[in-house]
Design brief:
Elements: H1 3-9, H2 14-33, H3 52-64, H4 73-85, E1 88-89, E2 92-93, H5 103-124, H6 135-153, H7 159-167, H8 170-176, H9 182-187, H10 189-192, H11 200-204, H12 209-212, H13 217-226
Antiparallel strand pairs: 1-2
Helix pairs in contact: 2-3, 2-4, 4-5, 6-13
Length: 234
């Protein structure tokens, strides 16, 4: 039964419809972010309102009404997963369950992640009124990115290593936190070969279109020089 049929069958109120959509959003984000994680999903049969996930999504709506725009719940859920996924005590990792969506802890995680997200976007914003970054700014950003990647991988990363970083959404994390430049994401052959033919915006949750106008022949030549290991030398 489709979501629309479920909504009609169980005569959901507007708040219940919104909560149900958040359940579906949770499933979608978890499938992308945690493909091998055994997680709680939406109720597959019967009334979806009787699931644990629905109860937490409904509670989330009540707690954050007027505080979060509905369009930003995708970021909110992503934030909870990103933060919890990187919390560990030795070999013990934080549980990622629907309960992580509500309460003071969830709100603190959201504010922390959103602060970093906004900071990264500001830092990456195109500074000139003509909508273009200068060559020197792009050069500095790419050199910082190269330094970060070489430190992370103990030298030039291989295609397989970047592919794994893309698939495990480490690239999304690094981009969000400002560790790597959006120009690297746009120009990297390794990245382009790892995103399953999706658009950069869809995959990385960033609007990269504002950077494309700054990619000149000079920038392309710089990237070819600094990241020559990403090109087939045969």
């Amino acid at each position: 039964m489709s979501p629309a049929e479920q909504i009609i069958k169980y005569k959901m109120t507007q708040d219940e419809i919104s909560a149900y959509k958040l359940c579906i959003l949770w499933d979608s984000i978890c499938e992308k972010e945690l493909p091998r994680y055994k997680r709680i999903k939406s109720k597959q049969t019967g009334d979806p309102r009787k699931s644990l996930l629905f109860r937490y999504c409904y509670k989330l709506l009540k707690e954050t009404r007027g505080l979060i725009e509905y369009k930003n719940y995708r970021l909110y859920i992503t934030a909870q997963i990103h933060v919890l996924r990187n919390i560990s005590d030795g070999n013990v990792h934080a549980l990622i369950e629907p309960g992580c969506l509500t309460g003071d802890g969830a709100w603190r995680r959201w504010k922390l992640w959103k602060k970093r997200y906004d900071k990264a976007k500001i830092a990456q914003a195109v500074p000139h009124s003509d909508g273009k970054s200068s060559f020197s700014q792009i050069q500095s950003a790419l050199i910082r990115t190269k330094k970060f990647l070489f430190e992370k991988f103990d030298g030039p990363p291989s295609s397989d290593q970047i592919h794994a970083a893309v698939q495990e959404f480490l690239i999304v994390k690094w981009l969000t936190l400002g560790k790597i430049s959006p120009y690297y994401v746009l120009l990297s052959p390794f990245v382009a070969n790892s995103i399953d033919k999706k658009s950069f915006e869809e995959y990385f949750m960033f609007d990269l279109s504002i950077y494309k106008s700054s990619v000149t022949d000079e920038v392309n030549n710089l990237f070819l020089k600094e990241f020559d290991y990403e090109y087939d030398k045969k």
